[in-house]
Amino acid sequence: MATFESRDGKAERVDSSRFEKFEKSVLDKGFVRLADMMGDDYSAVKAARVSYGQGLKTPQKDKSLVLYLMEHGHETPFEHIVFTFHVKAPLFVTRQWFRHRIGSFNEISQRYTEVKEEEFYVPDNVRVNISEDRQKSVEVEDTALLESIRESIQKACEESYRVYKELLNKGVARELARVVLPLSTYTQFYWTVNARSLMNFLSLRADSHAQWEIQQYALVIAEFFKETCPWTYDAFIKFTYKGDLLPKQNVLEK
User: Fold this and answer.
1) Pairwise CA distance, residues 58 & 80, whole Å
2) Rounded to an integer, what distance in angstroms lies between the CA atom of residue 74 and that of residue 134?
């Protein structure tokens, strides 16, 4: 349980435990947590049927409507399902994420908080480019080469952090000292997004053409989406999902 201050000054309690199972580690130090949610599959049904002055009917009819809406591109009812995620990810992943503009973001500030020594991403999944496709990369399988690359990345992060601390100790403001920190630095942010925009995110990021690191976050978000809105998720997979990482079997039938 968590407390908050209501408008009339009286402390009230709200249940913050209902999303406890919706938290999962990603990469070496990151995570995704479902912090809050408004609505569910039925919210889309009610939003669609209000056009005819109607509401919920039977579960089978409501489920069929979700499939119909998705199949025929009537997607605005899904904007009435809203998620808020708390995410910890490296800066380079976050900058890709923030390109999804239909959503609200609030990020931790390195002007006001000091970066910790351990807050750097050192990949286990190391890729190298191939000459025939500038956007494609393949995973390094040579163990010696992999360890050499990881060691180089680790040393670069440690040196950047050493200079960062040195600047802080000299009195340099946090907002300026951070300029020496690498893109591997972890950050945290809150992302509030409706289901329609979330589905667009999954089509683009739960896909083999996306960078591997952001794929891992998208796959976790897809798990949370599937469990909280199973009808909408399955309709999305069946009719509108454009990626290639989420399985398309076992979707709902009409």
Assistant:
1) 20
2) 37
Counting every residue, how long is the chain? 254
User: Quick one: CATH architecture of 14-239?
Assistant: 2-Layer Sandwich (3.30)
From the candidates 13, 18, 111, 205, give the one annotated as an active-site residue: 205
The residues that bridge with 133 in the sheet, in sequence order, are 130
pLDDT tens sequence across 118-127: 999 999 999 9
Encoded tokens for 181:
């920190």
* Burial class, 235, CB count within 10 angstroms (exposed 0-12 / middle 13-18 / buried 19+): buried
Question: Nearest 5 degrees, angle CA 167-CA 172-CA 176?
Answer: 95
What beta strand segments (E) does 147-220 contain? 186-194
Q: What's this model's pTM, rounded to 2 decimal places?
A: 0.89
pLDDT of residue 16: 54
Cβ within 8 Å of residue 70, ≥6 positions away: 78, 232, 235, 236, 238, 239, 240
Reduced to 3 states (helix: H, G, I; strand: E, B; else coil), residue 87 is: strand
- pLDDT, tens digit (0-9, with 9 covering 90-100), for 131-170: 777 777 888 888 999 999 999 999 999 999 999 999 999 9
Residue numbers in the chain where pLDDT is lower than 50: 1-7, 11, 13-14
The question of whether 178 is a catalytic residue gets the answer no
What is the rounded distance in angstroms from the CA atom of residue 175 to the CA atom of residue 216?
30
